[in-house]
Specification:
This protein is mostly helical and 211 residues long. It has 10 helices and no strands.
Length: 211
């Protein structure tokens, strides 16, 4: 517990908005690397950038799901960062979608064809669409307007969002790849903890005022 208290003391000194700044810098930096074909972007920069943003978004979703179990199991409290993690996840996933739509597919007709014909694209799009009401209501005003109980029910959409995102990554991977499997297992375990008898965990976008 002493270690957890030390970590919590350090976390209290870090404002939650730093998550947004770091996320924005990451997205811009990766785009700049891809634009100049530096490092991993030397070959197929659009494809690599698309996957880089997608994986980053999935990591943020996993981290958001981890916040409550981490506090329960270790005492490390990252609750104040959860909203920022969730909102940042949305915008990183949005960047992933835009790279795919604008730079890769480049056509509304082709986008629709891909969504309809490719199951991994379909499930990825469903995950993104489910993120929209979550980010739109990730504010204290929405909590007051909807009421705490309704708001919490709505934000349980976090669970299928993370599940579909993990399946999207797993499905599009070619051959046996450890990373997609690892993310799928992590999401599965974190979701399983929420459905154990006697436990009730909240979603990724829970407001600080209701925690």
């Amino acid at each position: 517990m002493a270690v957890a208290q030390t970590i919590n003391g350090g976390l209290r000194r870090i404002p939650a908005w730093t998550i947004y700044i770091v996320g924005a810098i990451y997205v811009v930096w990766q785009f700049w690397l891809a634009l100049n074909q530096i490092g991993p972007y030397l070959v197929e920069p659009i494809n690599v950038l698309e996957r880089t943003y997608g994986e980053a978004g999935l990591i943020l979703l996993v981290v958001g799901l981890l916040v409550t179990p981490l506090r329960k199991w270790t005492g490390v409290n990252m609750i104040k960062f959860r909203r920022a993690i969730g909102v940042t996840a949305f915008f990183v996933v949005l960047a992933h979608l835009l790279v795919w739509a604008v730079l890769d597919v480049q056509s509304l007709g082709r986008m629709w064809t891909e969504i309809v014909k490719r199951p991994y694209v379909t499930i990825g799009m469903v995950s993104f669409v489910l993120l929209i009401p979550l980010v739109a209501t990730s504010n204290n005003l929405s909590v007051r307007k909807l009421g705490g109980a309704t708001w919490r029910k709505l934000h349980k959409l976090t669970y299928p969002v993370a599940l579909f995102a993990a399946l999207h990554y797993l499905w599009l991977a070619k051959g046996f790849q450890i990373e997609p499997i690892a993310y799928a297992v992590a999401v599965g375990v974190l979701l399983a903890t929420r459905f154990r008898p006697g436990l009730s965990y909240s979603g990724l976008f829970r407001s600080r005022g209701r925690q």
